[in-house]
Amino acid sequence: PRSTLFPYTTLFRSLFMCMASIRPGRAVLVVEDAVSTRSMLSEFFIGHGYEVLHARHPDVALKRLNTSGANIDAVILDVHLDDNRSGFEVLELIRLDERFVDLIVVVLTAHAPLDDEDVEIIQRNRAHLLFKQQGSQRIFERLEGIVKPLAMPAA
After folding, report:
1. What distance in Å separates the CA atoms of residue 32 and residue 79, rounded to the nearest whole number?
2. What pTM does this model have?
């Protein structure tokens, strides 16, 4: 139904507007277990010229990152994933690999508030947290600040 998809459509529009600063020909890894959300994100970014790698399962996400990591500018990571595993687990595994210490990770969740332990994991692993229900303007502002450094030319 349109009424349940509308907030996500606004979110995806905001994500794209902010991620437009990513260098052409680069990729985003979308880790999301909800088929409709993953498909909408993928179609949206592909339609705007991005390569989109996607995964619904944590192991698939880590495999994609390991095989394509040099070409990935950012990871969009849902908190609640298949196999009763958490996006926080994926985040911590990403940061254990020295190749991905500086990789931008945006943690998305529709579940608020998070407990103190979850917030500490996000902070310790230098990730960004966005709540899907924050609304498009707030998401746009946050993502703009997150991905903007990617547009800077290498020295």
Report:
1. 8
2. 0.74
